[in-house]
Amino acid sequence: MQPDAFFxxxxxQSALFFLAMVAMTYGGMVLTQFDLVQGLSVIPRAFAxxxxxxxxxxRAWARLPRILEKLQETxxxxxxxxxxxxxxxxxxxxxxANTTRPHPWFSLPARxxxxxxxxxxxxxxxxxxxxxxGQSGFTGFFALFFVTFGFxxxxxVETIDEVGIEPVEALRATGAGYTAIISQSVIPAxxxxxxxxxxxxxxxxxxxxxxxxxxxxxxxxxxxxxxxxNFSYGSASLVVLATVAVVLLIETVSxxxxxxxx
Amino acid sequence: xxxxxxxxxxxxxxxxxLALDSITFSVQPGEFVAIIGPSGAGKSTLLxxxxxxxxxxxxxxxxxxxxxxxxRGQALRHHRTQIGMIFQHxxxxxxxxxxxxxxxxxxGYKNTLQGMLGxxxxxxxxxxxxILETLGLSEQMYKRCDQLSGGQKQRVGIARALVQQPKMLxxxxxxxxxxxxxxxxxxxxxxxxxxxxxxxxxVNLHQxxxxxxxxxxxxxxxxxxVIYDGPPHALSNAQIxxxxxxxxxxxxxxxxxxxxx
Lengths: 262, 261
Known about the structure:
A: 262 residues, mainly alpha, MetI-like fold, B: 261 residues, alpha/beta, globular, transmembrane (chain A)
């Protein structure tokens, strides 16, 4: 093929692709009756309204103790579910990883279980569990638990396999038993990554817990939902600000821990 | 009585690959034996079949009068405690200290709880320290293994094997990742251990010159078969050719002439 012909074809491909994008965007706008001009012009007003209502008022500050109490509850549930799920996740990861599985048959089921738990979103878990546990802290706890469990299993399977079979092989050669090999070689080798991932899940789960709370009517999410639907926007925004402050605080702490252990 | 006897040992991977093909030889207590051969000849498989990191397909391996292929559970663990193993890539837990890695050599003697918690006796710790001192690692004792040089790591590997108080050492390419001077230190150490304690040493090497220099006996392996089994001085150039195939032949013959000179 001549270079000219090659580049002409390239140009035609690009043009067609661009046209297809324009057509899809326009088609979408027509179908949903979206008016671009109106959409853009409303943005400044939306900001003005948001800022006017976002500043916490007197009433909101009076509610601060209650907000902090609920926030504490939410954070503790997130921490508890993350850490307990991580223990179970590590257990399943040890069964699933190539270097530590007791038998090759364990790998696929372990990875499949992890995949199912991880790929169902935390909000979906919350809705499913709402049927079992109703509007209680348990619903949120288990929703976060399941997602963390799946996630930690998945990443620890990879971490264990990355750390490698070499020390495991060496300990097997000394006659060490399975539990000794795991506790003396695999866990020490994976510990920094494990702690790092658990901290990451705690951070993520505190954020998710807010959303889960809205869905399940518990914790800080419930308060936000309540204030918002009562038009107490100042109080709702204080909930948001308090949550952001806690999330930043937790992130700072966990980054400090990470730096220290790695 | 022989310490180790291999009888028609065969290992098959799948239907096609024959890693070990009817290997028969025996090793007397206190011998220093080098197994030489090209990469993929089955040297590693051979060593790993002795402490059952690999299960053989057929044949028999007897160590100290005990048939190895049938061992299960506690008996297998006991068998492994009597054989120390040294690896090309040291196989240490890099995040742990030197002394912790050395004490791993005692895990074969522990029950589940002791092993899980890493409970070592006063005596075991003293022994580990003593071995580290003899290997010149007393300064490094509390350092993390990832701070050590390759030669030091391999000495930690040797210490971990010695603390088992083994009857035999299996060394799988112990100097393949080391520079020449560290390699010499490691080979001298292995020879010294063999001479002073009488521990049998079985070492896989791909450096023929090193094998000829240190070993009392050479076993040449190619494609899973023993091509040569005898003293180093009786190993002819033609036999080295046969072990390594024609390609590597010239280079190796060169090495042998230099060694002989």
